[in-house]
Amino acid sequence: MKKGLIDVISLGCSKNLIDSERLLRRLAAKGYDVRHDAEMPNGEWVVVNTCGFIQDAKEESIDLILQLGSQKKTRKIGKLVVMGCLSQRYMDDLKAEIPEVDIWYGKYDWKDFIDNLPDRKSALPEKPKDWERTLTTPPHSTYLKISEGCNRFCSFCAIPIITGRHTSRPIEEILEETKELVSKGVKEFNVIAQDLSSYGTDLYGRHALPELIDEMAQIEGVEWIRLHYAYPSDFPMDLLDVMARRENVCKYIDIALQHISDKVLDNMHRHINGENTRKLLAEMRSRVPDLKIRTTLMVGYPGEGEKEFEELLDFVKEQKFERMGAFAYSEEDDTWAAKNLGDEIPDEVKQQRLDRLMELQQEIAYQRNLEMIGQTVKVLVDRIEGDTRIGRTQWDSPEVDPEIYVDGSDAEPGEFINAKITKAEPFELFGELV
């Protein structure tokens, strides 16, 4: 155990990661040595920022907490702190079941941990601004969270239970943070929220996402803006004009559609039907040339029979999504679906449907990549392996989308190069420097 060292371990999504980065910044300002996601935690304090979204994520969080509790008993680490979505949702139960944890916080009250820690001699004289953080991503790329929470209340989703109502950050604050990050070398901004589509409706009484993205795009040094987690119902259509007009707004959007069957969408409380979903996608592709869409779909939701699943497969064949993920329905405590629908479809049927859907998407993704052979694309270099530069195009988000391997360049990470695509695989591209 190392005195003065605090290990912070972040689980779950990029929105969680931003909270961890804000925590790291505040801890450093109080004079502590900090590490993020160390392989061998040995800090005086270890803080785990948990995920509680789906069953697998909850199990991962609990397993890690138990493992660290064992290390605490052997004095490999000091005190153990747990925060985040899992503890926000199950605080009382966790306290009773895992006494090895010294302090529990939820998703929003973790700042109390900072306030209760004594300053060290090397503490900074001024506290960081609320949005300031220590980046854990590559220095040229970051996530930018513009709101928290969700008002949609889809019947399967626990996010509103965990995060509460949708709350937007002011445009001025986001722009200030963007300028600060640019001054530190950030070029790529992956804009995230539980529900991008609703941004601004609580603060300004209107959809303000188009205005925000247009303002961000005019900041010198912002090379790429990429949008994640839009909602299809009540989508801010003016955003499409901004995407088409601004060269540094990536022609990419991540919009979770979940399903196409009217029956299933109604059971999910998605506030949109299959016909309007298709109209929205057609409008997006019509108004934004070269747009690539990432979506997420769900199989095995209560009420999804073979007819509805086949309808979903036909929809994927028809749309040929460039990027797509999928998961099997998992019943979440206290959601409307858990209380009213049950979990009627056997796990083996869910898995079979998921496998069929992803096999179909793999072939579609491969064909989409093959279509890019011969094209010259702008690539942001993320890392170097030997003589090969590995990066992404504007259509590829970190961690979830394909990478492109480029030979013949001496560019450093964070630099842009132009590459001609020479070869394609289902989830990777290969090119040569132009």
State the share of residues found in helices, binned by percent.
Answer: 25-40%
Shape summary: globular
Q: Calculate the mean pLDDT score and round it.
A: 95
End-to-end gap: 51 Å
Count the strands?
18
Number of helices: 13
Beta-strand percent range: 15-25%
Tell me about the largest β-sheet: 6 strands, parallel
User: Which regions have little confidence, pLDDT < 50, spanning 5+ residues?
Assistant: none
| Largest sheet: spatial strand order | 6-9-10-11-12-13
Rg estimate, integer Å: 22 Å
Structural class: alpha/beta
Description:
There is one protein chain. This protein has 434 residues and is an alpha/beta fold. It has 13 helices and 18 strands. It has helices at 14-29, 55-73, 85-97, 111-116, 159-163, 171-183, 209-217, 238-245, 262-268, 274-287, 306-319, 336-340, 347-370, and strands at 2-10, 33-36, 43-50, 79-84, 103-104, 141-145, 147-148, 167-168, 188-192, 224-230, 249-255, 292-299, 323-328, 376-385, 388-392, 403-407, 416-425, 428-433. Helix 2 links the parallel strand 3 (43-50) and strand 4 (79-84). It is globular, with a radius of gyration of 22 Å.
What's the helix and strand layout?
Blueprint: E1 2-10, H1 14-29, E2 33-36, E3 43-50, H2 55-73, E4 79-84, H3 85-97, E5 103-104, H4 111-116, E6 141-145, E7 147-148, H5 159-163, E8 167-168, H6 171-183, E9 188-192, H7 209-217, E10 224-230, H8 238-245, E11 249-255, H9 262-268, H10 274-287, E12 292-299, H11 306-319, E13 323-328, H12 336-340, H13 347-370, E14 376-385, E15 388-392, E16 403-407, E17 416-425, E18 428-433
Parallel strand pairs: 1-2, 1-3, 3-4, 4-5, 6-9, 9-10, 10-11, 11-12, 12-13, 16-18
Antiparallel strand pairs: 7-8, 14-15, 14-17, 15-16, 17-18
Helix pairs in contact: 7-8, 11-13
